[in-house]
TrEMBL record:
Domain named HTH merR-type: residues: 1-71
CDD domains per record: HTH_TipAL-Mta
GO molecular function: DNA binding; DNA-binding transcription factor activity
Origin: domain of life: Bacteria
Organism per entry: Paenibacillus anaericanus
Keyword Transcription regulation annotated: yes
Keywords assigned by UniProt, alphabetized: Activator, DNA-binding, Transcription, Transcription regulation
InterPro entries: DNA-bd_dom_put_sf (IPR009061), MerR-type_HTH_dom (IPR000551), MerR_fam (IPR047057), TipA-like_antibiotic-bd (IPR036244), TipAS_dom (IPR012925)
Pfam families: MerR_1, TipAS
PANTHER family: HTH-TYPE TRANSCRIPTIONAL ACTIVATOR MTA (PTHR30204:SF90), REDOX-CYCLING DRUG-SENSING TRANSCRIPTIONAL ACTIVATOR SOXR (PTHR30204)
Protein name (record): MerR family transcriptional regulator
UniProt key word Lipoprotein: no
SMART domains in alphabetical order: HTH_MERR (SM00422)
Amino acid sequence: MQMRVKEVADLVGISVRTLHHYDEIGLLTPEETTEAGYRIYSPDNLEMLQQILSFKELGFPLKKISEIINDPSFDRQEALLLHKNMLLERRRRLDGIIATIDRTIQHSKGEIEMTDKEKFAGFDFGSNPYEQEARERWGDAAVDQSNEKIGKMPKSGQAALSEGMNEIYRKLAHLRGTSPQSEEAQAAIKEWYDFLNQIGNYSLEAFKGLGQMYVDDERFTKNIDQFGEGLAQFMCDAMIVFAESDKK
């Protein structure tokens, strides 16, 4: 199905001016431009636009994105998988930092004891294997700019994200002794699904796969279970039930 520039802009949530700019710099050239000057976009154009926006979300500059996607060796599927892994790794680290901050708050209130080492748990950003792969594929400058963008996230946005995430984790931790199929558990896991789709784009299959990762990857398990032992497994089970029930 072919679409005009205004239709693409409305679909994606970006401005017509942005699409015009992408065309002007050769980043995304429409399939066709009519004699009247209308830009017509094809399904292939939309796939490329998704890829461009994925790189942009990671902080890559437009010039570097153009170099990457126009390289003859560029593999779109490989790039998408690497994007996903980089974002999951960042989220894992943020989960760890958020959990540490929560424990520090408890410590400051005298509710728990923390060692000096525990106070800095989750703050090690030096060993992201996916980031290293990205550096090898796309260069240091692109990845450095991506990290800089993440670092500039407003504190108010980080705080809102943190509190929303923690509230759902706490709710699920309170329910982890119940059946993952219960109405309460499914209502809470739907909140988690909706929350994730506010900051990303998760299909039911992806949501189900993410839940499995919570128990398959001990790093996820450790971070999540800080809210309550067995929470990762409970969330995994509830996410499977939610994804499979919602398909029917």
